[in-house]
Amino acid sequence: MPLNQFSRTELLFGEDGMSQLYKSSVAVFGIGGVGGYAVEALARSGVGRLDLFDDDKICVTNLNRQLHATRKTVGLYKVDAAKERVLEINPDCMVNTYKVFYLPENAAKVNLTPYDYIIDAIDTVAGKLELAQRASEGNIPIISSMGAGNKVDAAALEVADIYDTSTCPLARVMRSELRRRGIPRLKVVYSKEAALTPQGDMRASCKTGCVCPPGVTRNCTHRRQIPGSNAFVPSAAGLIIAGEVVKDLTSFAGG
Question: Cα torsion for 66, 67, 70, 73, to the nearest 10°?
Answer without folding.
Answer: -90
